[in-house]
Design a protein that fits this description.
This protein has ten helices and six strands; from the N terminus they run αβααααβαβαβαβαβα. With 204 residues, it is an alpha/beta fold. The chain has one domain: Isochorismatase-like (Rossmann fold, 3-Layer(aba) Sandwich). Strands 3-2-1-4-5-6 form a six-stranded parallel β-sheet, sandwiched between helices. Helix 8 runs parallel beside helix 9.
Length: 204
């Protein structure tokens, strides 16, 4: 796939998957649970120039916000599999409208539209597809966490919705390099996988 041809005349959109305070901030839920990913923490500063470049081209920058909706008693409704893997999650974590749920500070001013999500894909049970189609987006640049989770699910959902998809290899992170690389290799069957420097160079 020729990336340069993809970008000529492309109507660009960006999807930033789950780069939120509760995942990445030193006072967030994952830091409290000693599950902070050092690689993931570096992503926002690396992705901010990409977001700015896409906006300069008239593109739309979107973000997905993983959300734990409260029940009638204010307790977070957590899927059983997530509760088993992340037992430290508690009331207030990823709550809608909270600082923890919000995009990290360096990216927040660059995001045009945020959608709340409850599962891996940024498309599942959200209005992301409607927003992107309404904005005329046909080419999606995807980054975020985790490579083999939310990112991979979002990329495949974008592919079946007929978007052209570009995955920024250094804009994603997983809880291990092997998982990260395997996910990138897998996504290469439905997307162009490039690093951010290559993308920015081709964008011009």
């Amino acid at each position: 796939m020729n990336l340069e041809m993809n970008l000529q005349g492309a109507r660009l959109g960006m999807v930033i998957v789950d780069l939120q305070n509760d995942f990445l901030a030193p006072d967030g839920a994952y830091a409290r649970g000693h599950t902070l990913s050092a690689e993931a923490v570096q992503l926002p500063a690396r992705m901010a120039p990409v977001a700015r470049a896409i906006k300069a081209r008239g593109g739309l920058v979107t973000a997905s916000l993983f959300t734990l909706w409260p029940d009638a008693h204010g307790e977070p409704m957590i899927s059983a599999h997530l509760k088993e893997r992340r037992p430290f999650l508690r009331k207030g974590d990823f709550a809608p409208g909270s600082r923890g749920q919000a995009n990290v500070d360096v990216l927040a001013p660059l995001v045009d539209v945020s959608v709340f999500k409850v599962a891996y894909s940024a498309f599942f049970n959200t209005q992301l597809d409607w927003v992107l189609k309404k904005a005329g987006v046909d080419t999606l640049v995807v980054c975020g966490i985790v490579t083999n989770g939310g990112v991979a699910s979002t990329v495949r959902d974008a592919h079946v919705r007929d978007y052209r998809v570009i995955v920024l290899s250094d804009g994603c992170a997983a809880f291990g390099e092997a998982a990260h690389q395997a996910a990138l290799a897998d996504m290469a069957s439905v997307a162009e996988v490039v690093d951010s420097a290559t993308f920015l160079k081709q964008l011009g």
